[in-house]
Amino acid sequence: MALTQSRVQAQSCSLAQVSCPQLVSRKALGRVSSRHVARVLTTGTSTSNSTLRQVPLEEARSPLSAPLPAGSDPWEDEKWTKYKWTIYRGVAYDLTPYLEKHPGGRWLLNLAIGRDATGLFESYHLRPEVAVARLNRLPKLEGFPVEAVPTSPYPNDSPIYNAIRERVRLEVFKGVSGAQRTGSEGAALAVLSTAVITYIMYAMNANVFTGAMLGLAGAWIGLTIQHCGNHGAMSTNPIINNLMGLTNDVAGGSSLMWRYHHQVSHHIHCNDEAFDEDVFSSFPLLRFDDRMPQMWWHKYQHMYMWALFPFLQLAFQLGDVNALIANRTPGATLYGASKEEKATLVLGKVAHYTLLLAVPFALHGGMAALTGWAAYVAAQSIILASTFAVSHNVPETKPQEDNACRENLYHPIGERDWGGLNLQIEHHLFPAISFMHYPAISKIVSEECAKRGVPYAHYNTLQEILPKFVGFMRDVGSAKQVPFNRDGELVMLTKL
3-class SS at 45? Predict the structure, then answer.
């Protein structure tokens, strides 16, 4: 991810404070993993009187499981389920007339269905006034129970974000529409060529070396073209973006599950221990935040995590299947996923295992196929784990230390500043921009941060950031659990 840029970057800043409605949801907790604990808040008349208590899930479920009044459950009541609804800044819209007209493709717009998509909407458009004008032409759903839907951050309420976006649009892209989705054609050619060449080597002689080389190519796909394609940032043509995104499926992942996991859960709630799937999905094996419960083995996680990393790809694959069955990833429900999108998961797994196991098995026998496949999985997993993990797990990006990041993450969800604001700053601010432009954008971001006295941390190389990551994992594994600070909100994953 961050390694596709010229620098591995981290930001520990809280940009301009955003004023948004608090997240208040009365929906039942529903299907939550038994290891999760419901966090229930008892709120007084003012912020200073708000208190927090942690209760077991079973106790928390009963007071929250009372049904909403008729017509007030937009996910269940027929009055609302007939619409492809979304929420933007407190207003409900029916997306149905626009699904086939969306310039970025229906598969991207589907992410907005059934949720407050304000954060997605505003971070994806460099010209928000144009996008809002189109949105306002869609049918508005009068009487829609907006208060029942968990709210999203409001990026465009951040003055520094607006200033950065305007400079990026004018200085980097010269005001040219669509320019942000160009420039990565050469990178795509290099990545795809490498994948084809290494696969030919693998098919001709499946072994540890060729399997590992193909695994490196698979990791390169994951870090670049599938990532950028699934964000709609590889091309101005949505078909090309979709095809680049589908390389994730061939490499062993799922483009569908990745979009919900990465874009809906991780990007919108980056480094939140309850909402960001990248933080909580590895628990209890790994603890990435000191707001999470501490187990005795976590004090050793900085050592044993290296034994877990080679199995990351297998964990993704099992998660993909579970998510298809449950119709949700651990951090996001697949409200808008079409049958065609779900079919890509099945067809992708068939294609992946045909290429990785069936072909070498037919040509070289079972032992060679299994050996090559195991090397592929281990190599791809180690690269992905190492680069993913360091991207958001260093002291500057976490609330463990008394820094601006703690101040931001300890605010209620709806009142936080925007951006991910941790690592890969430019990508989190502008996920629909090709990674080729991030070095130029980073200069603008650092300048705007300097103007406002906002800390901006960066690491030039993996060698620099890796020791910081290991140190963080050691420290957070040994840290006692800190009290939650969720003023005025109920943390409820099942309706996100």
Answer: coil
